[in-house]
Amino acid sequence: MAAPLATLKAIKSTVRKRISSTLHSLTQDEIKQQTEQVTANLLRQPFFHQSRTVACYLSMPGGEVDTAPLVDAVLQSGKTLFVPRMDPLLKGRMDFLRVYGQDDLATFPAGLWGIREPGECYQGGRRQSDSDNLDLILVPAVAFDHSFGRLGHGKGYYDRFLTQYKATTRNMPLLGKFSFRHGPRIGLALQEQILEGEDVPTNELDWRMDVIVGPNGIIHRPVAERR
Ligand SMILES: Nc1nc2c(c(=O)[nH]1)N(C=O)[C@@H](CNc1ccc(C(=O)N[C@@H](CCC(=O)O)C(=O)O)cc1)CN2
Ligand SMILES: Nc1ncnc2c1ncn2[C@@H]1O[C@H](COP(=O)(O)OP(=O)(O)OP(=O)(O)O)[C@@H](O)[C@H]1O
User: Fold this and answer.
1) Is the CB of 187 under 6 A from ligand 1?
2) Which residue is closest in CA terms to ligand 1's atom 22?
3) What is the pTM of this model?
4) Looking at the predicted complex, does its ipTM rise above 0.85?
């Protein structure tokens, strides 16, 4: 039987604190080194090469894979990049705005939790939810598990967005196990964020990832289990 919501919240909070303290003990050098490995692992994937439109978070000051090199690679390769902006009025809501180049990024101020985002006056194109498909959605977390579960920071931004985001059923060109329905969710993880022998607590509102990219390789969810 599923745990009551209050219990689940408390369990999530306990696990989050435990992992967060491990993450905060990592040095900048360790994060940098793992970031390089994660970035290289993602950049060599056929699904990355085939993607044209990528949604990527801009990283926080610590405790997660730094997406700066990745963002650079996406822009350099001529792919269309979208980054999140948290809604200043609607709690737990965010949308994705198009970023055209490094010049745009350089103007983004650090907002909540030190996360850089397009400012109020940013003129980037808003993602049109019906006509702009995302070929890849790169997702941050506090922790992932081998069942592709994800534990975030507890505000539900990504879960709400992913629910609202209507993945179309248009297929990427078929690549066997790498074939996705549109908008695959790709978790980016430091080694310490991939739990071993333990699953993160989740309920039915929590989206599972299709792929988790870590410093030591990638794991991908069997096609039949994806939704
Ligand atoms: N880079 C990045 N951008 C992101 C996310 C993320 O995880 N990483 N989010 C993913 O959804 C959303 C922001 N969500 C966040 C919510 C809370 C905290 C945070 O640090 N909160 C507490 C500490 C809680 C904890 O221990 O985790 C604090 O206020 O100190 C960070 C991000 C949207 N953008
Ligand atoms: N699709 C959704 N629709 C409405 N509420 C949601 C949805 N997903 C999550 N929530 C709510 O948001 C709150 C935080 O959810 P949860 O603890 O799963 O966040 P998280 O995944 O850890 O955080 P984040 O996505 O910001 O990293 C909970 O109260 C949860 O019920």
Assistant:
1) no
2) 153
3) 0.92
4) yes
